[in-house]
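Worked Example 4.2. Consider the chain below.
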Amino acid sequence: MKKETNLKELFNKYLTGKASASELLLLLDFFQLEKDSALLRELILTELEEEDQLSALTEQQELILNRVSSVLKNNIRNRKVRLRKLYTSWAAAAILIIAGCWIGFVKNQDGASFFTSTEQQIIVPGQDKAILELEDGRVINLDSGDDLKTKSKYVFADTNGMMTFSTEGLPAVDTKSGERTLRTPKGGQFAVLLSDGTKVWLNAESSITFPTTFTQSTREVNITGEVYFEVTKNQTKPFLVHVSQQTVKVLGTHFNINAYPENEAVQTSLLEGRVAVIAGGKHVQLFPGQMSLWKQSQGGLKVNPIQDIENLMAWKDGMFCFDNNNIAEIMQVLARWYDIEFSFEKGDYSNCVFVGMIPKKKSIQEVLNILSASQQLEFKIKGRKVIVSQTNDNKN
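Applying the procedure from the previous section yields the following structure tokens:
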């Protein structure tokens, strides 16, 4: 009885989002033991029956449970992937999404799919690609799909497999500007190793402009989008990052800057070392575990603690991280990574909020399948456009 009580408590913690990582791993372990698996399946069924909008899922409950059980065993145990909390405020959807890699069509009581495609076009995820604009105006395409033998002197895969451009491998051109720009398009990501040894990762639709050679007194770059830095320490030559009327000054440290235009703010998050953030005539210092938020329209520069560093860096580690994000915010992220357009049919989407992590290497169809498990939303793909609508049960 003690084990049964513990399992019920553990399952309740999971549903309310209060389970720790170790408790979630323990919950997954119950799927490995036949007698405990039966009890956990019974708890899931009970939760399903208590959900009003899921009262007609009786015929599919066994299918859902079998899929979840299979995924937990094969994908989490055999592949040893890290556990991610993937759940929504709907308990049944939480059971589906915790599996992460479960892909399929969730059907409503009429048998209609929550995800449809009018064309047989597979929208693949982004890849390592970028455009390098040289100081003399030449443009070089850096694409992991190209033959890299001719570029081997300045393009390589780092220890995590991301394609990286090394400035040391490309000789400078004698021009007055002396600046280069590395840009990632929608559906692209890349990294660059600067001449001082600083490593920079660019998320999709981002850029960094840097000189062919740093000056004797400073190391200065300009960025757009989302960029992560690991700056080589140099006490005599500070590293300056200029972004959207903000400057970040460092000597050597690890930090992330998110300055996508739709966010209407610049978020600077410090993981290691110390940085000074200067914006709007204001100046703040950040310590590890802190972030600053600069909104030009409000003229404010605020400092807050980082809630979850792992979630913050998920994009660099190949994951989408949704932390109470509205579906509108999520679609912005997906549009940038999959190079798609999206639109919403008329309705109130303010309550369509998700928490969880999904691998970025999945196709857009797979990601939409996971999101549709909440049974709040329906997705239709027309060419490279995704149309989002509410399910009949969630329309006003």
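The longest helix spans residues 58-78. The two ends are 45 Å apart (CA to CA). Compare this with Example 4.1 before moving on.
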